[in-house]
């Protein structure tokens, strides 16, 4: 309308302005205004139809609003032309009011579908729905903003986090070291990348997170933008996989790989130790008579009594089958073997209340006199163990 002010829009027709016999007639400016308005409506109808085909629910509302706008504009225009010679000529003045239908449907779509195409709304969606926990911290590690996921990790409501130090909600970390590191990173604007941090949250849960950060300038203030990923489950799985790689599933003792790793470390220290090999006697007979389940129970029973005799400083391993190995201080080997043999005096009780008396053959080799690597020590201990087994058979 403002653009068409210089162009004649409405004109009087009559001999004089004062005459009672006059009427308003449309001028070029009004025709131009109508042309622009109809073009605007047609373009919007086309764009809305395209959005409707894409499945946009809000576009259905827009289409209704534009259709009503179009019908209103056309009706008031035609009515104004038809009634221009009557007292109802003023109906044409209401042509622009059809925009109210369009405005109202936009308002409804924003209310019903949250259809606000703005950076603020996009930011809120990303912030609320982000698969990462998000924190905004100042130089003192005070929380200025926190995403819902971050509240879940910490174990408190978001309102409690805001304007409070993050250190007030985490345990198991050194507060002084944390603040010192935070200030250093902050002052030098050092970004964090895949930094791992483990803490205990307010629910008493141990949480391991992966932290990435950057710095943003907001209203003249430098803030740290922190992105957090919970890797607790992944770390538990990793720990379990690592444990299984070095431990026997049936007995929870070290397996061959775990034992080889341990003896390699011991050999590198060049300190004397005894390699003690233990083999369960009559294992085939137990399996044949009582079943393989009883055989597994027998192996678990031996593992249990070896753990009972040994301590954490002396590793025990199951090399496979019914074969076990111990690494001992040469000064304690004799006493430990006596204790192990005495443990076999207690019978193994099976599920059917049957009892089995177990026994074992033992062979010992000495490092470094009997060998300087695992294979040599095993070979000597194995020969002595079979010698012990033969002596047991003779008895």
Tag the structure with descriptive keywords.
single chain, 395 residues, alpha+beta, Beta-Lactamase, 3 domains, four-stranded antiparallel sheet, 48% helix, GGDEF_dom, transmembrane helix, Sensor domain-containing diguanylate cyclase
General description of the model:
- With 395 residues, this protein is α+β, with helices and mostly antiparallel strands.
- The protein has three domains: 10-115, no CATH class; 123-234, 2-Layer Sandwich (Beta-Lactamase), CATH 3.30.450; 247-394, 2-Layer Sandwich (Alpha-Beta Plaits).
- Helices cover 48% and strands 19% of the residues.
- It is built from 13 helices and 13 strands.
- Helix 1 (28-53) runs antiparallel to helix 2 (57-82), helix 2 runs antiparallel to helix 3 (99-113) and helix 10 crosses helix 11 (292-309).
- The chain is elongated and about 135 Å long.
Q: Per CATH, what is the topology of the largest domain?
A: Alpha-Beta Plaits
- Name the average pLDDT: 86
Q: How would the global form be characterised? A: elongated
Quaternary status: single chain
Provide the spatial order of strands within the biggest beta sheet. 4-3-7-6-5
CATH superfamily of the largest domain: Reverse transcriptase/Diguanylate cyclase domain
Class based on secondary structure composition and strand pairing: alpha+beta
Q: Number of helix segments?
A: 13
Q: Approximately how much helix is present in the residues? A: 40-55%
Summarize the structure.
The protein is α+β, with helices and mostly antiparallel strands.
């Amino acid at each position: 309308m403002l653009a068409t002010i210089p162009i004649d829009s409405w004109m009087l027709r009559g001999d004089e302005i004062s005459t009672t016999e006059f009427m308003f007639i449309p001028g070029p400016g009004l025709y131009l205004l109508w042309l622009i308005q109809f073009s605007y409506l047609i373009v919007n109808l086309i764009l809305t139809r395209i959005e409707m085909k894409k499945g946009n629910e809000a576009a259905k509302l827009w289409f209704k609003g534009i259709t009503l706008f179009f019908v209103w504009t056309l009706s008031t225009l035609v009515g104004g032309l038809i009634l221009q010679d009557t007292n109802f000529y003023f109906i044409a003045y209401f042509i622009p009011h059809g925009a109210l239908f369009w405005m109202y449907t936009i308002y409804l779509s924003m209310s019903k579908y949250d259809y606000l195409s703005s950076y603020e709304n996009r930011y809120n969606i990303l912030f609320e729905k982000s698969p990462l926990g998000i924190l905004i911290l100042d130089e003192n590690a005070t929380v200025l903003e926190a995403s819902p996921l971050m509240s879940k990790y910490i174990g408190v409501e978001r309102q409690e986090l805001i304007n409070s130090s993050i250190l007030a909600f985490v345990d198991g970390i050194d507060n002084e070291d944390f603040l010192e590191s935070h200030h250093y990173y902050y002052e030098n604007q050092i970004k964090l990348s895949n930094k791992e941090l483990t803490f205990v949250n307010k629910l008493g849960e141990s949480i391991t997170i992966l932290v990435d950060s950057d710095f943003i300038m907001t209203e003249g203030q430098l803030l740290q933008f922190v992105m957090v990923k919970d890797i607790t489950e992944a770390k538990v799985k990793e720990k379990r996989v690592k444990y299984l790689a070095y431990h026997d599933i049936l007995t929870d003792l070290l397996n061959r790989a775990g034992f080889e790793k341990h003896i390699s470390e011991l050999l590198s220290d060049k300190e004397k130790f005894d390699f003690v090999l233990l083999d369960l006697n009559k294992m085939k007979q137990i399996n044949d008579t009582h079943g393989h389940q009883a055989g597994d129970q027998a192996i678990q029973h031996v593992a249990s009594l070896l753990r009972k005799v040994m301590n954490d400083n002396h590793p025990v391993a199951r090399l496979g089958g019914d074969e076990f190995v111990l690494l001992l201080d040469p000064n304690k080997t004799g006493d430990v073997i006596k204790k192990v043999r005495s443990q076999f005096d207690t019978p193994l009780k099976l599920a059917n209340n049957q009892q089995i008396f177990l026994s074992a053959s033992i062979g010992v080799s000495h490092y470094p006199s009997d060998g300087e690597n695992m294979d040599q020590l095993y070979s000597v201990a194995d020969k002595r163990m079979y010698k012990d087994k033969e002596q047991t058979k003779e008895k």
